[in-house]
Amino acid sequence: MQLYLSVAGRPKIFDSETALEKAANLFWEKGYEATSTEDLLAAMDLQRGSLYNTFGSKKKVYQLALDCLEKKRFAALKKRLSESDQPIEVIRSIFLKLAEGSPSEHYKGCYLGNTVAELSNIDAELTGAAQNYLKMFEDILYQQIRAAQERGELRTKESPRVLARYLLSLWNGINITRRVYPEKKMLLPFIEMGLNILK
Predict the structure, then answer these.
(1) Confidence band for 14, pLDDT divided at 50, 70 and 90
(2) Partners of 6 in the β-ladder
(3) Which CATH number applies to 84-199: 3.90.180.10, 3.40.440.10, 1.10.357.10, 3.40.190.120?
């Protein structure tokens, strides 16, 4: 979405989606509390008045940035699953890919998990938004596991809902552990062990 802001009497095209993606990356790296308004202005290439006139507040920027990032990621995941004839392998691959990250990616962890961990006692609204996305991820896992069981592609008789929540817990655990052990050789064995449930 493009907006037009007045800069010294001249209209300036402002791409709000690009600005929010930059804000999301900054919040993901630094966290909500440690990110100052000045940090946001520099990252988003905005003047203070433009930031407040367009988005209203730092909290609103965080909310919109979270939505911008996660909607794209969920759309990409759903597309991959819909186009694959082996959706369980797609699920396995997104977990295994966590081991492939760079050290800086490992230290960032999961944006949603970080939000819940940092803000659960500070801001119920932002925490709830992150929780909802994590539950959406769980629901996607549940739907794919249930369908795979019905097709006979998984031998396990465990409840698909329990399996989905187990995988959500595994996801959250990996994203904490990779901050402690940011090396593929350390991460891959326990990720593979956790995925053994999908048989």
Answers:
(1) low
(2) 11
(3) 1.10.357.10
Number of C-alpha atoms within 13 angstroms, CB side, residue 34?
9
Residue 4: band (very low, low, confident or very high) from pLDDT cuts 50, 70, 90: very low
Phi, psi of 147 (to 5 degrees): -65, -40
Report, at the CATH architecture level, how domain 1-63 is classified. Orthogonal Bundle (1.10)
Distances in whole angstroms, Cα of residue 112 to Cα of each of 33, 44, 54, 67, 185: 15, 21, 24, 11, 25
Q: Determine the angle formed by the axes of helices 160-180 and 87-96, rounding to 10 degrees.
A: 20
Tens digit of pLDDT for each residue in 39-76?
A: 999 999 888 888 888 888 999 999 999 999 999 999 99
The alpha helices in the chain, defined as continuous H runs, are: 16-30, 37-44, 48-55, 58-83, 87-96, 103-108, 111-119, 124-150, 160-180, 184-195
β-pairing verdict for 2-7 and 10-15? antiparallel
